[in-house]
Amino acid sequence: MNANLKTSNIKKYLCLIIPALLIMSCETNINEQTIWINSAKVDCVGVGPMQCFNVKNSESEDWTNFYQEIKGFNFEPGYIYKLKVSVDTLDRSNLPADKSFLEYKLIEILSKDTDPFLPLNDIWMITQLKGIDNLKDIALKSIPTIELNTNTRSIMGSNGCNRFRGKLETLKEGKISFGPLMGTKKLCAEMTTPNNFNSALSQVKYYKHNGLELLFFDRDNELLIGLKKVD
Asked: Which listed residue, 155, 165, 175, 216, has the most CB atoms within 10 A of its CB?
């Protein structure tokens, strides 16, 4: 009788403890994260060429490529998202070689804000340049132009003689600066404008944007470069 009672109690105990252990086991494979999603996908290479999210785990971090989808999340370009997601660790033994063992699912959209830097994404032509009195005297093909891409934090263009490209080193509200530029090194008949442009661009610290006009200033708020959006 006592043996049967003990056996019955053990069974009841197991019925209670096993589901709890299973729940705990499942929960150890899932955690929640807060991530930020940038306003546009970028070209990247995973298994092959693809489009990736740009993500970061805090507002102070730099954007990095994110090669996976987030289940339940419908992305709309032009907005910066702050998301709460669950991250599930999958059983690797049942996964294809090219599939990640982490699975992301949307829990909640914490915020959805228009990207304030999106209007800067365009091709811009120089209208004013420090050290050059009259750009109208310069042939159109020799007018410097720049193309900004705030999603990839990059700049490219022409100084009026040579093509160049580089990185946006700083991009915050009202602040912008450029890292070292790489480009061609040919000599042109007129080098004053290209040289002045290169010098001015290296000194840029602040910007003002108003519609079709973009202005770059140095650390003393002296105007270095004025630009207009190219149609």
From this structure: 216
- Whether 106 and 81 have beta carbons less than 8 Å apart is answered as no
Cβ–Cβ under 8 Å, residues 67 and 18: no
Indicate yes or no: pTM above 0.90: no
Q: 134 is written with which tokens?
A: 């009259």
Q: pLDDT tens for residues 104-132?
A: 999 999 999 999 999 999 999 999 999 98
What the block records as the tokens of 131 is: 């050290």
Query: CB within 8 A of 158, min separation 6: which ones?
Result: 144, 145, 164
The tokens describing 1, both together, are: 């009788």
Three-state SS for 119?
helix
C-alpha 159/C-alpha 161 separation (Å) is: 6
Query: Residue 66 in contact with residue 46, Cβ under 8 Å?
Result: no
Please return the burial class of 224, using the count of CB atoms within 10 Å of its CB with bins 0-12, 13-18 and 19+.
buried
